[in-house]
Amino acid sequence: MPMLADPSKKYKPYTPLNLPDRQWPSKVVRKSPIWLSTDLRDGNQALANPMTIAQKTLFFDTLVKCELKEIEIAYPAASETDFQFVRGLIEDLIRRTLESVAGTKLAIIHMYNATCPCFRDVVFRNSKEETIALAIKHTKIIRELTDEYSAKYGTRFKYEYSPETFSQTEPDFALEVCEAVKAAWGKAGTGDERIIFNLPATVEIAPPNHYADQVEYFCQHISEREKIAISLHPHNDRGQGMAAAELALLAGGDRVEGCLFGNGERTGNVDLVNLALNFYTQGVSPNLDFSDIQSVIEVVTACNELPIHPRHPYAGELVFTAFSGSHQDAIKKGFEAQRIRHAEAAKKGELQYWDIPYLPIDPADIGCTYEAVIRVNAQSGKAGIAYLVQQHLGLDLPRKMQVAFYQVVQDIADREAREMRPEDITTAFRETYHFGSSKYEGRLVLKSFKISSEPSPDTTGSDEQPADERRLFDGTISVDGALRVMRGDGNGPLSALLDALRTHLDIDFIIREYAEHSIGEGSNVKAASYVELVRGGQDIKDARKATESWWGVGVDSDIAGSGLRAVLSAVNSAIGDRELPELKLNVGFNAKSAQSDVANAILNSLQLELPRRLQGSFFEVVQRAARGTGGELSYSDLIKVFRETYNYEQPDPNAKIQLKKFKMKSVGDNGHKNFSGQFIWDGQPRDLTGQGNGSLSAILTVLNSQIDGTLSVREYAEHSIGEGSDVQAVSYVELAYNVEGQKRRTAWGIATDTDITASGLRAAVSAANKLGIVQKQ
Question: Where is the Pyruvate carboxyltransferase domain (predicted)?
Fold first, then answer.
C-alpha cells in the first residue's frame, strides 16, 4: 500500500501544551545530570538474543569503569537469568525483586505502570481511578518490603516510579498519579532521600520541544519539588531522542536514563555516550569517563551483538573522517592555525581552546588517533593527501608538489576503485619520489659527497667586495648499482651536482623551484628539501613556462645533503628506464680525473683501499692504457686493467713462482718465524725453508736463497674486506729488487685470503713474479 497523499486522515497530530510562560528556551545547562544506564534492563530486553550472565557481568564492569553511579541491572521477575545475575552481583514480582538485591548497601527499586489513555482503555481496561489505585497499592507493598529488608539486611532503598507512556498521558493525570504515589511512599525527603519520578517518552510521538514543555509543566505543578528528582527517559522513535533529552534538561530534568550508544526497544533509548560528550564539547564535565571509547565499543558490540553504525556520533568508524577535498583542506588549515594559536596562548599563559573545522571534539580526548581524520578516495583533494604525508612522514609539501602527488594518488584511486589508506599513500609517495629505505631507491643514489669552494674565474675581489665563489661537488654516486665518482661545479651545491650529472651521464636539468624546512627539534633536527626540475638547454623564461617537470624530496641532517638527495630524487623520476652512457675517466692531457678518482673507482668496485704509493703507480698504468682512446677509460676497462696488472683474483700466466702450501712456526721468545713451504718454481716442485723476524722476512729469506740479487720489502699494508663469515684479509706488498750492476726495480703484489699471514705471503710472491728475478745457477 503506498503512502497516503493526506496522512491527516490516518494520523492525529500531538496536542501542544498551553504554556505561555515557558522558561526552558532561555536556559543553559551548566552542570551534568545524574546518569542512569538501563542497558542491562531496557537495552537487554530489546535484544533478539538477550545477554548471558557472563555478558551482563562484563557489561556491568564496563559501566563501572565509565563511572556510571546508577545502573538499572535487570528485570529480575522476567527470567531466571536476570534473577541469577542480580544475585551474582550482590535473591512474584515485587518480593522477588527485593530479594534479588538483599544485602547490597544501596538500591533503587523502580516500579511503573502505564498511564496513557491508549493503555488504560485498550491494554489494561482500567479507569483513571483504577490506574491510580494500582500505583498506590504496589507502592505500599514496596514500602513494606523495603522496610523489612532494610531491617533484615541493612540495605538502604530509594524509590523510583514511572508513569509509563508519560508523554502520551494527560499532563494533569500524570501529576495526579505521581502525587498519589508520593503520598503512598511517605518517605520522600531532600537530598539523597528524594523520590525519583521518571517521565518516559515511552514512544516518541511529538517534537522535542513538546516533551520539554511537558517536563516543565510537571516540574512547575508537582508539590514538594525539592523532594523529587525528575528523571528523563526519552526514546528515539522520531529520531529526536537526543534533542528531547537536552531540551527536557533545560526544562527541569535532574537525571537521564539511557543506554550506551542508544540501544533499546524499537529505535532505541537516548544514547548516554552521545549526550555526555555533547556536554563535554560545551565545556561541561559529564563526570563520566570515555577516554578509551574503543574498548567501550568492543564490549557493547560483543554483548549486544549489534554493530555501531559507521556514522554514529563520536563512536562511528567514520565520524572523524573527511573524504571531501574541501573538508580536508579546511581541516589541514585548521590544524596549522591551531598549532600557531596554541603556541601563542602558551606563551601568554592563556587557555588553548580546540577549534578545528568539522571536528567538534578532539579525537585524542576519547582515545582516538588522528590517522582516520583524513581518508582518501577518488573524491579527495590535495590538501587531505598532503596532510597524511605530513602526519606520517613529517613532510610539509610545497603547494605545487601537492598538486603533482595528488595526481599520482588519484590515478591509483581511480584505477583500483577503493579508499586509499595512509599506508597506501605513504608507499605511493616513497615509490614515486624514491624516498626512505633502500627498498625505494632509484637508479642514482648518493653515497658520499664533499662540497668545497673556490674563487669564481669570472670575478675579482676587492677590499670592499670579495670575489664570488663557486661550489665544487666531489661525490660517489651509485649508478644502477655500480659506485661511481663524479665531479661538478656551480654557483651552489645543487647546481654543482647537476653539472656533474651533465658531464658524466649526459643528464641535463635545471632547477625551477626549491623549498626547505626542518623536521624535529634539538639534536634530532633534520632538513627536508624539495626540488622541482625542468629540462635543461632552455632559458629562464622558457623554464618557467615548461609544462613538464619533476619533483624530488630529500631528508638529511645536513642541509646540503638534503638538497642533493632531493635533486637525485627528481632526476630518478625524470630518467625512468632510459639507457645511461657508460661512465668514463678522463686521464689524458688536461685530465679531469685525478689519481684519487682512479683510487675511488677501485675502492667502490673492489673494496680495495690502495696505499698512496700504489695509487700513484697504478695511475701511471692507467694513463698509458688510455693513450689509445684519447685519454678516456671506462670504469669496466679500468677494473680490467687493474686485474690484469696485478693479477688480482686471477692467475698470472707468466708467474715463475707459485706458493702451494706453507707452515709458519714461531721460534723462541723474540718473535722470529720459521717458514717451510712447497713451491712450483719454473714448473718444478721445491720444498724450501727459511727464517726471519716475521712472516714476510722469512719468505724473503727463502726467495733470496734461490736468486741472484736481493729482494726487500719497500712497503706493506693490509685491511679486511667483507663482513661476518665472508670477511677476508687483503695485503699489499711492494718489493724492491737489487742486482749488482743493475738499476733497482720495484713492483706491487696484491693478494686476498681468509688468513692474514697467507695473504701477505702470496702478495710477496706476486710482487716477486713481476720483477724478472734471476735464479742462481
Answer: 33-294
Give how far Cα 154 sits from Cα of 72, 150, 189, 194, Å: 20, 5, 19, 19
Contact (Cβ atoms closer than 8 angstroms) between residue 47 and residue 79: no
Interatomic CA distance for residues 316 and 308, integer angstroms:
6
Say whether pLDDT at 290 is over 60: yes
DSSP state of 556: E
Helices 128-153 and 171-185 pack at an angle, to 10 degrees, of: 30
Task: Tell me how crowded residue 417 is: count the other CB atoms within 10 A of its CB.
Answer: 8
Residue type present at position 414: D
Question: Roughly what angle, to the nearest 10 degrees, separates helices 422-433 and 559-575?
Answer: 90
Query: What cell does 218 get?
Result: 510537571
Cβ neighbors of 302 (< 8 A, separation 6 or more) are 55, 58
Cα-based torsion angle of the residue sequence 552, 557, 560, 561 in order, rounded to the nearest 10 degrees: -60
Quick check: 169 and 205 in contact, CB under 8 A?
Answer: no
- In angstroms, the CA 593 to CA 371 distance is 52
How does pLDDT run across 155-197, given as a tens digit for each residue? Answer: 999 999 999 999 999 999 999 999 999 999 999 999 999 999 9
- Of 274, 393, 406, the C-alpha closest to 329 is 406
What the block records as the C-alpha cell of 521 is: 627539534
| Angstrom distances, CA of residue 216 to CA of 164, 232, 236 | 17, 12, 20
**How far is it, in rounded angstroms, from Cα 513 to Cα 510?**
9
Written as one letter, the residue type at 633 is L
All cell numbers assigned to 188: 520522600
**Separation CA 87–CA 53 (nearest Å):** 11
The residues pairing with 264 across neighbouring beta strands, listed in sequence order, are: none
CB-based contacts of 633, cutoff 8 Å, min separation 6: 584, 585, 587, 622, 625, 626, 641
Contact 263, 304 (CB under 8 A): yes
Rounded Cα distance, 620 and 623, in Å: 5
The burial class, CB within 10 Å (0-12 / 13-18 / 19+), for 632 is: middle
Whole-model pTM over 0.90: no
Enumerate the β-bridge partners of residue 688.
677
On whether the CB atoms of residues 718 and 755 are closer than 8 A, the answer is: no
CA gap 444, 567 in Å, rounded: 10
Strand order of the sheet with strand 672-681?
657-667, 672-681, 684-692
**Residue given cell 585524542 in the structure block:** 364
611/731 Cα distance (integer angstroms): 10
pLDDT over 60 (residue 377): no
CA distance linking residue 645 with residue 620, whole number of Å: 12
Retrieve residue 404's grid coordinates: 603533482
What lies within 8 Å, CB to CB, of 109 at 6+ separation is: 97, 98, 101, 142, 146, 157, 158, 159, 160
Q: Which three cell numbers stand for residue 211?
A: 516533551
Q: What is the 3-state secondary structure (H, E, C) of 516-544?
A: EEEECCHHHCEEEEEEEEEECCCCHHHHH
Q: What stretch of H or E contains 763? A: helix 756-769
Nearest to 436 by CA among 526, 607, 558, 553: 553
For residue 672, which amino acid is it? Answer: H
pLDDT digits 0-9 by tens, 685-732: 999 999 999 999 999 999 999 999 999 999 999 999 988 888 999 999
> Which amino acid is located at 461 in the chain?
G
